[in-house]
Amino acid sequence: MREILREYYAMKKELSMYICRLKNQLRQVFPQFLPIFSKVNGITAMAVLYEYVTPDAILAAGLDELEQFMKRTVTKTYMRKLSLSWKQLRQHSVLGMGIPASSFSSATILK
């Protein structure tokens, strides 16, 4: 039993190390990604990183395409959080911190 617990904690420590590496690399390459996703290693964040490999691909996709992709990926329990995230993303876009505001109309901001 001790050996199993030791292995469990070793694996947990290794997972934490990989998550830290991912966050550090995202901070360097695409810092706007981190404020949008509360859990970088979550299903939706990982799906976005898998589907859109580079920051340019994410920016080129536009808000509407990303929103549709994320709605297909995310489970129903996270739908409320997702709508809040999109409001934040649209706000960040307007402030120049995320995806350019030119990729969506002013009518979309008010949703």
Task: Report on the architecture of this protein.
With 111 residues, the chain is mainly α. The protein has one domain. Helices cover 72% and strands 0% of the residues. It has 6 helices and no strands. It has helices spanning 2-29, 33-36, 43-51, 55-73, 79-94, 106-109. α4 (55-73) runs antiparallel to α5 (79-94). The model is unreliable at 94-111 (pLDDT under 50).
Number of helices: 6
- What is the count of distinct domains? 1
Category from helices, strands and their pairing: mainly alpha
Share of β-strand residues: under 5%
State the end-to-end CA separation.
Answer: 54 Å
Total number of strands? 0
**Coarse morphology:** elongated
Order of helices and strands: HHHHHH
Radius of gyration: 17 Å
Instruction: Estimate the mean pLDDT confidence.
Output: 75
Topology:
Elements: H1 2-29, H2 33-36, H3 43-51, H4 55-73, H5 79-94, H6 106-109
Summarize the structure.
The chain is built from six helices and no strands. With 111 residues, the protein is mostly helical. It starts with a helix and ends with a helix.
Question: Which terms would index this structure?
Answer:
111 residues; mainly alpha; elongated; single chain; 6 helices
